[in-house]
Amino acid sequence: MRKFKIETWGCQMNEYDSQKMAGILKSYGFEETQNDEEAEIFILNTCSGREKAAHKIFTRVGVIRKNLGKDKIVGITGCVASHEAEQLFKKIPKLNFVLGTRSVHLIAKAVKTALEGKRFCDTSDHPESIEISPDLVDRQKKVKAYVSIIEGCDNFCTYCVVPYTRGRERSRPVEDIVEEIKVAVNKYGIKEVELLGQNVNSYNYNGKTFKDVLIEVDKIKELKRIRFLTSHPKDFNEELVKVIASSERICKYIHLPMQSGSNKILKLMGRKYTREEYLEKIDMLRSYIPDAVISSDFIVAFPGEEEEDFLLTMDAIQKVQYDNIFSFKYSPRPKTAALRLKENVVSKKIADKRLIILQKYQEKVQEIKHKNMEGKVYEVLVESVSKRNKTRLTGRTEGNHVVNFEAGRGEDLIGKFVKVKITSSTFTSLKGILV
Asked: Per the confidence metrics, is the pTM higher than 0.90?
């Protein structure tokens, strides 16, 4: 049996695509391995969300060729593949195949063609790529299921490469989503599902909206937790919040990227909402779910960001008091409209300083929030054994807090829900003991 290894970089959607490709290859008789020496086929499922993504790929391919042998089959899939397509063959000598994000269903064909000594490239927009049979999605050793409900994006935020790598929005039928989750539940014993989309809130299929998806998924009694990612603020509304608030299964964790607290910068970003509208939605959310755990994304030093704009961002962060923030310096991406703002580029020195200020403030907020969780007991879904300490397990609360706790040799607890008392904390995670 030919052995393959998939290396996944980037978002949950990439993780989901990797599970699809693994399942398809296994159905054709291939065997998966995590051992570099054993693997004959390497599939690099890539992300182009940040700068230097291509450089990371070149480095990894070089290591494979130099250390493991020139006869290894190496293919590139994911967003970088969609973006650069056949150009990758010119940049990487002896690359065997390239598959775009909407060609993952062709992975077996790509690998077989490569094994025959020929190159294969397909970055076309195949509608069938979104409808791979639920039975083929490989969820072995997974504690939760990623399920795509909508792929692509129509927002075209000026900094974002997603519409160019994953295409325009395409929603799946509610029935297909529910069927895939039921297969995950019945075949793998999955208790938690995470509904995926570049913007789940814009889901629309035959008049059904995202709230209708949540209502139908909430009817699957075997599920204990339902999550979703990501929400765009312009489509986040009261009707949706009411559905979340009324459910015992839908996690009260909301990731709502603001990106900037300045209306000027939000307009330059093409975000389609104002600072005031965003903050009103946060107030509305907390009026229905007072203990909601809220996270966000922020980009500092976007072209044209002046000190006043950055201070407005900090003011918004201080007003909301987020439970977690993912923050980045602006990174120019190919084909995006923000590239035209060259004359207003913020210097690296200022960008670094602003990012440090933002992150230092958020660290203090999270330290306080985590400190307030000490001494309390939370239900945790156990995800894995610590790599450094085999007696320590890692899991997450409903609010997506990472919890590390001692449990002896507790491998049999992976995939199960347990009660953990929080004993100490840092700004990144919590430590506890099994109750």
From this structure: yes
